[in-house]
Design goal:
Blueprint (H helix, E strand, L loop, with lengths): L1 H12 L33 E9 L9 E11 L4 E12 L2 E15 L5 E15 L9 H4 L4 E16 L2 E11 L17 E8 L1 E3 L3 E10 L7 E9 L3 E8 L3 E10 L3 E10 L13 E10 L13
Antiparallel strand pairs: 1-2, 1-15, 2-3, 3-4, 4-5, 5-6, 6-7, 7-8, 8-10, 9-10, 10-11, 11-12, 12-13, 13-14, 14-15
Protein name: Type IX secretion system membrane protein PorP/SprF
Pfam family, one: PorP_SprF
Keywords: Signal
Length: 305
């Protein structure tokens, strides 16, 4: 009980910079870009399942945590990719859940270049349960629980070839605002818009480097992620991503037979005084991706994006 009250007090004091949780740093774990651009899943003809977890502010009880899942598959007739998305975020007594579906279509515009258009539709839920926090505090004791839903839509476009992609998207367009006026909403940050780009380049016979960029257009601070991953024989990989709001992400990945990929990253602050992450020892992210070829015995190319 006491630890909940202490955390709630800290969060209220810091509410001007805590309108939402930090976003995942997508650039190092590109296989989860489906949350940023629904067209990305049309770039892969396999069935792909991805889970992503994050624990922020390591060492602080009831600190923000997040989990997300995407699953998509290619339907050869009528030649579209379809997928499902689920997100869950929690901070103290508040939580945010999102469920949705994606569909995308790819067309060839040259022998080597393709254009993919993707769409997203789903529902968001915001919940705040204050029961138990109000002992000794009449203001909290009288605060009613919150449980609200809203619709969300989105779209994205991606130009790509085997070793390059560039795209733009608005993956989250709110169809209405949440009615509650709570200060600690985990996710009510308005519409989102992104520009993303990436490529892969061989470095001799055994190594390759995959630089990437992600620019978030709508938030006030407009975070920019710039990263690069060095890949060894399409298996082991290590990368760094810098975020303009004052974080650095160091990541390790390992791929088994082009099917299973495991990843871990550690996010730490670079001294930006506006960044709440400086109050802890950092944040941890884990990543799992599993792919299944579209047919038994079909070639499964290495998926670097």
């Amino acid at each position: 009980m006491i630890k909940h009250l202490h955390l709630l007090g800290v969060l209220l004091l810091l509410s001007p910079i805590l309108q939402a949780q930090e976003n995942f740093i997508y650039a190092n774990f590109n296989k989860h870009l489906g949350l940023v651009n629904p067209a990305i899943m049309g770039m892969d003809s396999s069935t792909s399942l991805t889970a992503f977890g994050r624990k922020q502010w390591a060492g602080i009880n009831d600190a923000p945590m997040a989990f997300s899942f995407t699953g998509n598959t290619f339907v050869r007739r009528p030649g579209i990719a379809v997928g499902l998305v689920a997100e869950y975020k929690k901070i103290a007594v508040t939580s945010y859940t999102s469920l949705g579906a994606m569909v995308s279509k790819t067309v060839n515009i040259t022998p080597t270049e393709r254009l993919t258009l993707g769409f997203y539709g789903g529902m968001d839920n915001y919940s705040a349960r204050y029961g138990g926090l109000g002992q000794g505090d009449p203001a909290l004791a009288g605060k009613q629980p919150v449980n609200e839903w809203r619709g969300v839509a989105g779209f994205g476009i991606m130009l790509h070839r085997d070793n390059f992609y560039i795209g733009a998207s608005m993956p989250r367009i709110k169809l209405k605002n949440f009615k509650s006026e709570g200060q600690l909403r985990p996710e009510d940050e308005g519409n989102s818009g992104y520009v993303a780009a990436g490529s892969i380049h061989p470095l001799g016979e055994n190594f390759a480097i995959a630089p990437s960029l992600l620019y978030n257009l709508f938030p006030q601070d407009k975070p920019l992620d710039i990263g690069a991953t060095v890949i060894y024989r399409e298996s082991a990989a290590a990368g760094l991503t810098w975020r303009s709001t004052g974080e650095m992400n160091a990541a390790l990945q390992y791929t088994v037979q082009r099917r299973l990929q495991l990843g871990y990253s550690y996010i730490f602050a670079l001294g930006n005084q506006r960044n709440i992450i400086r109050f802890s020892s950092g944040s941890h992210e884990i990543f799992v991706n599993y792919r299944i070829p579209w047919a038994a015995g079909a070639f499964l190319p290495y998926k670097w994006w």
